Amino acid sequence: LFCRFLLVLFSSSSVGGEQISSIGRGLCVLLGISLEDTQRELEHMVRKILNLRVFEDESGKHWSKSVMDKQYEVLCVSQFTLQCILKGNKPDYHMAMPTEQAEGFYNNFLEQLRKAYKPELIKDGKFGAYMQVHIQNDGPVTIELESPAATVDPKQLTKLEKQQQRKEKTRTKVPSESSRERNAPRSKDDPSASSGAEGDVSSEREP
């Protein structure tokens, strides 16, 4: 899970010009769900969002209070583009969880937030819709959170990643023929061996 959240004075989300959700002061959470995410990552992110101390206390001291301490609102927006990987200048989203799975995961995320906090203070947009998100940033303060790396299921690796892994294993286990030839000791009778004045070819750096 990759999350970017902003401290806001006001935030709202609209679909087709119609406002569907809004909050006052609090957090606007942009959430990117990846293929590898599980319940473990979800629970970690819920705890962090609700407990991170990013607000000031009663005396004005910054970085002292969480959104729960202040009883502020949270507006969540699912944003698969946070899982973007650039291929040259073209964005690639193959690491984002497919829509069919991601919707259930996102709804579970909202449910866990509401259970851990106050349901009426957790708002959300419309999953899968083309939304216009209006954010009045406070500060501005924007913080990025990423859940601890999960163990990757080999089935989820792309064909290219699998090929790369095989190549790396081969390089580690089997030295190339040319490497064996370069590293092999040369006998004094070997006519191809260089003289001591020129230096031993076998010790030269590879191109």
From TrEMBL:
Signal sequence interval, chain numbering: 1-17
Lineage: Eukaryota, Metazoa, Chordata, Craniata, Vertebrata
Gene Ontology CC: cytoplasm
Any Pfam family: Tyr_Deacylase
Name of the protein in its database record: D-aminoacyl-tRNA deacylase
Compositional bias annotation for Basic and acidic residues: 156-167, 178-191
Alphabetical UniProt keywords: Cytoplasm, Hydrolase, RNA-binding, Signal, tRNA-binding
Family to which this protein belongs: Belongs to the DTD family.
CDD domains: Dtyr_deacylase
Location in or out of the cell: Cytoplasm
